[in-house]
Amino acid sequence: SVTIRRVDYTPPAFAIDKVELEFDLAPLTTTVTNRMQLRRAPGASARDLVLHGEDLELVRAEIDGKPWTGVQVSTDGLTVSNVPEQPFELTLVTTNRPSANTSLSGLYVSNHNFFTQCEAEGFRRITYFLDRPDVMTTYTVTLRASRADYPVLLSNGNLVETGELPDGRHFARWHDPFPKPSYLFALVAGKLVAREQRIRIRSGEEKLLQVWVEPHDLPKTEYAMQSLVHSIEWDEERFGLPLDLERFMIVAVGDFNMGAMENKGLNIFNTKYVLADAETATDIDFSGIEAVVGHEYFHNWTGNRVTCRDWFQLSLKEGLTVFRDQEFSADMAAAGGSPEAAAAARAARRIDDVRGLRQNQFAEDAGPMAHPVRPDSYVEINNFYTMTVYEKGAEVVRMYQTLFGRDGFRKGMDLYFARHDGQAVTCDDFRAAMADANQRDLTQFERWYSQAGTPHVSATAQYDAAARTFDITLTQGYGPASADAKATQKGPLLIPFAIGLVGSDGKDLPLRLAQDGQVLAEPQTTRVLELTETEQTFRFVDVAEEPLPSLLRNFSAPVIVSYDYTDAQLTFLFAHDSDPFNRWEAGQRLATRALLSLADAAARGDALSLDPEIVAAFGRVLRDSTLAPAFRELALTLPSESYLAEQIEEADPAAVHAARLFFRRALANGLRDDLMAAYEQNRVEGLYEPSAVDAGRRGLKNVALSYLADLDDPDDAAELARAQYDSADNMTERSAALVTLLQIGPSAARAPLDDFYLRFEKEALALDKWFGMQATRRGAPGERVLDDVGALMAHPAFSLKNPNRARALIFQFCMGNAAQFHATDGSGYAFWAEQVLALDAINPQVASRLARSLERWRKFTPALREKMRAALERVAAGVQSKDVREVVEKALA
Ligand code: DPP
Ligand code: ZN
């Protein structure tokens, strides 16, 4: 395999002034006529033009209207020899085979309609091109197809012409006035209908918004449209960024590798992030739609108007756009509530985002695929659409805002667009805009982009009662990491470290920071310290009593913090910290510590026991009706088994499972009445609404139900769950009830499971849930959930070719059911190897995601490790794609 390196970047030798594409669409063979106006880049002297291309048949090549014979086709492209010195027109006619394209990259067919997916390198599967993001040009696209089969013909930009053709065919011509890289090209053709809405933006211009779906799905598009309208308003309000095209389209497709794609003016979405109604979608689905609609819309500026110079800069658009969608979701959740409710809603979003980051990105950063936010090399770029590029990248962007405030961040954004609109740029350009707009030297901050691994900060504190000073010493470094990751770790980072000091009454003490003999600024209760050295001591003065430090408030940097808290101190912070993130964090620290010691005892075969003080601490939060239900739900949710396994040197998933189950049972038995009360008090009456407040209440109620199902006698819970299933008028309640019944046991769940299937037989997204909940079922001791998974693979509704379905069953089992996947007989790993190889032949991108579920194999007990290695070696021996090969070879290295 060929490794591509960032240091080898060279600018393109040719520029494309404009391109005209004509498509004669037919499922078996589609013909593409590509007419490009080309010129040598200034200073370039290459005689040959080298274009990217894959799986294409070349029919004809012409230069300036004359046949050109100097063309050489290879497996990855086309070389056109001795091209003219002066600007010239190159015409290439090629064919491709959409219905045979199971990779879902390039032009493909899904349910008889045509779709494209071009990011990162799919455009080269449509025509020969300079398929790299720094080649931007304007596109005019003509689509021709049978009118009966493909009444709707869409591409980027504005519709300029439509008309009839002989033989029942018709055409549509689209022009996109904005120069764009090829990865943002899109076309859609088929039997689709649109929900439409016209809006007026601040300039007074009217815009047409459309959400295109299959006809039977039209009633499920209301929420996506509403989310789009909110996104457009929000980006104008918060960042002054308007919608720049006459129309903006979203199209839903059931076969899609990713969540969605931000093609200019024609976003293509996985149905999962468009279609929703109360009956088929959960609160989590609704909030996913809002976030992803926002995300793709926000790319219109951060990604499309200003794009990436090369794929190493992917986080330039992804980290920034994830940060923007997180802020959007938080603002939406907070809208309309009291200040307290708004703060609670924001905190809940922050906790959710950080939990995902710590569970998945921290593990990635500690494993064989660890890479910096701006990677230095890759074999297959599709493998680098990662948690690090997206989620850690978003944290890096958030740190600018933490350092400079909202206004300073906005100034940096304004300067970024003033400098770079219409360009393909780098992460350094973004950092320079932030630095210059805020008159700040951000040289050291560059290390956040270039160093892999999760930074560790350890804190120690010293109170001097006589001098009334409190010293906090912060030391930064990295934990164990792969050799490649270690090699990137060159020096200390600039870490914005937010801190508060909590007094014995539970209230924040005023903070007066002393530096160089000076007391800085007015007292405040949270201060962002700037840690820049490997070790640094900060002194607070006039501290009236010995405080308890509240560290890294609101998770002000993507780091692991250690501090020697006692259980009693954590319990105190869990009850009092004014920073809601850290209040939640104190409970998580308390639980994690107990869970890890329980896992240790379980691994040794010792008896398990839990301090009643810990149960009491959770009980107090559960009962505290001044806390938002969404917060209480998050506080009651224990760290996942996979997160806990990451914290252990040599993980034993069975022991972790036993520990977590024991902890849950202890809470259930200790808090039975409180859980029952939480269940009763948080029933939501009236019409279903996916609001943050209602969702929080349902969430708390359902987490209470799930604990009640872990009582020694789960009969009451079974009865509640069954009644909830039967009376549910929305998917959140219905699916939560069914998951709880599955947790109690297969016999309790059998009838509702059958009912669910019959009810939603024709609803693909709901059926995904049906597969998923069976794959993640806990299973009784000695029971093999894998046997169910095997049987479900033979179900007529199962298909490996549909990524959502494969993810619902196979990924959910391998990534969401740790104890069963890591069964000591190795059956989970054998199943994994078989499915990775089967998917590899169909869809390498999907296969490669599944392949990653074994990359932390070295962290497990020796017996499991050996079985995992054998499975990895089996895949390495049989793999075809470079996608999967890169993952397994890095894992085994
Ligand atoms: N469509 C993917 C995203 O928006 C890749 N750009 O993140
Ligand atoms: Zn994105």
Broad structural category = alpha+beta
The CATH class label of the domain at 4-191 is Mainly Beta
- Going by CATH, what is the homologous superfamily of the domain at 4-191? tricorn interacting facor f3 domain
- Small molecules in complex: diaminopropanoic acid, zinc ion
Low-confidence stretches: none
The third-level CATH topology of the domain at 4-191 is Immunoglobulin-like
Instruction: Indicate the overall shape.
Output: globular
Total beta-strand segments? 33
Rounded mean pLDDT is 97
The spatial strand order of the largest sheet comes to 6-5-9-3-2-12-15-14
EC number: 3.4.11.2
Family: Belongs to the peptidase M1 family.
Domain Peptidase M1 alanyl aminopeptidase C-terminal: 567-893
Pfam families: DUF3458, DUF3458_C, Peptidase_M1, Peptidase_M1_N
